[in-house]
Structures are given as structure tokens and as C-alpha cells.
């Protein structure tokens, strides 16, 4: 693998930098965008939920989770594998179910 550093870092384009073979490259977490958070909050607003009582982590998980936390807040974790629009379409019914428990 060849990496190139900028002149500001003391290297010129084309200078190869060796990389140790024991370095592991972790995949980037699937991050929830500001636009997606806004869409989720618009939905929770329509349901009459106070934004102070809704937690949306910035990273998605597989599977996504909607649950009430011990402190009473609603945690909404976006599903990493399902297309966001499909996931969002089913969110209202899942929130309603969790809130009735």
C-alpha cells in the first residue's frame, strides 16, 4: 500500500510512506446525518413527544432499536442495514408500540 503526504507534512507527492502490516483498518461507522435526525425529530414532534425526552445516537446499529430507557427517555437507534426511508416509514408505529408498553 502506498500513502502520500502533503508538502506541509514534509513529504512531496509521489514519496511513498511505508505502512506497518499490523495496522488494522476499521470500517467507518454508519453515521446518522443531520437531515435524518431532523426527519426523525419532525416525526416525534407530530407524535407530541418533547425533544428533550428523545435520544438519537449519531451511529446506526444492526438491528436498529427503539426503546424506553430507565430514565423514561425514548432512544431511537437507526437501523444500519435498512434503507433510511423504509426504516423511517415504519418508525411511527414502532414508537407508538414502545410508548404503550
Task: Report what the structure shows.
The structure is a single chain. The protein has 101 residues and is an alpha+beta fold. The protein has one domain. Helices cover 29% and strands 10% of the residues. The chain has three helices and three strands. It has a three-stranded mixed β-sheet, covered by helices on one side. The longest helix is centred in the middle third of the chain and has 13 residues. The chain is globular, with a radius of gyration of 21 Å.
What separation lies between the terminal Cα atoms? Answer: 53 Å
Kindly estimate the percentage of residues that lie in beta strands according to DSSP: 5-15%
Number of strands: 3
Question: What's the assembly state of these chains?
Answer: single chain
Separate helix tally: 3
Spatial arrangement of strands, main beta sheet: 1-3-2
Low-confidence parts, pLDDT < 50 over ≥5 residues?
A: 1-12
Helix-strand string: HEEEHH
Structural domain tally:
1
Shape: globular
Mean pLDDT: 81
Percent of residues in helices comes to: 25-40%
Over all CA atoms, what is the radius of gyration? Answer: 21 Å
The class by helix and strand makeup works out as: alpha+beta
Major sheet details: 3 strands, mixed
Amino acid at each position: 500500500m502506498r500513502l502520500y503526504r502533503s508538502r506541509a507534512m514534509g513529504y512531496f507527492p509521489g514519496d511513498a510512506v511505508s505502512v506497518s502490516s499490523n495496522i488494522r483498518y476499521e470500517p467507518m461507522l454508519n453515521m446518522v446525518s443531520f437531515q435524518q435526525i431532523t426527519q426523525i425529530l419532525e416525526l416525534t414532534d407530530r407524535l407530541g413527544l418533547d425533544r428533550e425526552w428523545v435520544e438519537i445516537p449519531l451511529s446506526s446499529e444492526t438491528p436498529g432499536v427503539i426503546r424506553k430507557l430507565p430514565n423514561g427517555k425514548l432512544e431511537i437507534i437507526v437501523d444500519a442495514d435498512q434503507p433510511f426511508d423504509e426504516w423511517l416509514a415504519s418508525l411511527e408505529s414502532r414508537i407508538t408500540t414502545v410508548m404503550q408498553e
